[in-house]
Design goal:
Blueprint lengths: L3 E4 L4 E4 L7 E6 L10 H19 L3 E6 L6 H10 L3 H18 L15 H13 L3 E4 L2 E4 L19 E6 L10 E8 L7 E3 L2 E5 L1 H13 L3 E7 L3 H16 L4 E7 L2 E3 L2 E2 L10 H6 L4 H9 L7 E3 L1 H23 L8 H16 L4 H18 L6 H18 L12 H15 L3 H13 L2 E5 L4 E5 L1
Helix pairs in contact: 2-3, 4-5, 4-6, 5-6, 8-9, 10-11, 10-12, 13-14
The structure holds zinc ion.
The site of zinc ion (ZN) has 3 residues, from loops.
Length: 460
Amino acid sequence: MEVKIYNTLTEKVEEIKPIEDNLIKMYSCGPTVYDFAHIGNLRYFVFVDLLKRTLLKAGYKVFQVMNITDIDDKIIQRANERKIDYKELAKTYEKYFFDDIKKLKILMPEKTPHATEEIPTMVEIISKLLKSGIAYKKAGSVYYNIGKYAEYGKLSKLDRRELRPGASVDIDSYEKDNSGDFVLWKGKKENEPFFETDFGVGRPGWHIECSAMSYRYLGEQFDIHTGGVDLIFPHHENEIAQSEMFCGHKTVNYWVHSEHLLVDGKKMSKSLGNFYTLKDLQEKGFPLNAVRLLFLSAHYKTQLNFTIKGLKASENTIKNINEFIQRLYSSGDGKKDISESIAHLKEEFFTHLFNNIDIVKSLARMHDIVNLANKTELDNLTRSSKSKILDAFKEFNEILLVFNLEKSEIIPQEIRSLAEERWNARQDRDFERADDIRNKLTALGYIIEDKKDDFIIRKK
Ligand SMILES: [Zn+2]
């Protein structure tokens, strides 16, 4: 099946044509592990999961690399504040990050390299850029001369008049009107970790990390590069400049960026009090699948306005669909056959998904199925219509992973809550508490079976 996606570079929706047969090589900018991920970060990772699952559903193989930035200004600063080693800080938050990824049922990338373990490739790239006169040394650091790369600015559509070649920029994140020569290698400073190289003692800038890791694990050219829109400039612009001048040709075919998440219509910030991590939402009692569905439910090219009301609505949607599926199991058989309409709506769900991941329309087709079935009344539907509906939902759930489609016995709410509490304890690696709850449930006559992303509860 062909999949279309919006390419930031060409500003067009394009059909994805893999370089190698059926294999899609994808690089996803990963986390800088200096704090808990906030829901804005997590929306991006859920989008990448949706993209990957869509490509897999369309029949492609996907090899995905996601970096872990475990050395950078923010990590070093925070580690120094806490008087701990920067590696220890990075390890701690990396663990929390992967816990969140698991909780949101995000597929693990095939490879998750760490920046600190990829220094030799960064050195290789910087050395070549120095040799070819694209990079230069100044006061112990190495900078990229943006004047030497004629296409600088092509991704973020920078006006060439805005460029200031010769002005060296030492920080990793900066605004467009400060676009000068960016830093590839930062000369050694007091209280900072460092590596020894031929061109000086110091540490890598942020942008070179991704050029090095994508080159090492995906080669000189690959299919898709993902990131949040905030990474278009300067991070991805600089990545293109580094990689293309190092390899001598185009390195990425499709640049894919997901939009921001707003909270209550505003940019999320700690000072506005609208800043959430996944743990915050769990502590408010929201189930993780409601969070996943909410992140999935807006198109990736539109801003997602996160509200608690919206999260409650997602929770309700899941509850309603789960109940609908249970009524489907327990209803009697009738004579009305809607199999054809169901097949058509199911097909449309995927057609929309394959067309630039238009999940909003896909979800609308899913709700159309529920409405159509309810209109006819479930007892009037033929058995085959109902099994078509179930099959459709099973396929939708391979992408969404938020519904419970197993036929369930009637489990009292208090038992279900206990089981959920145990699942969350397991996710938080509180195995002692999880075991206590399991024993309690066994004593009450219930068995829990753990699946990869979920659990099943049934009567003994
Ligand atoms: Zn990156």
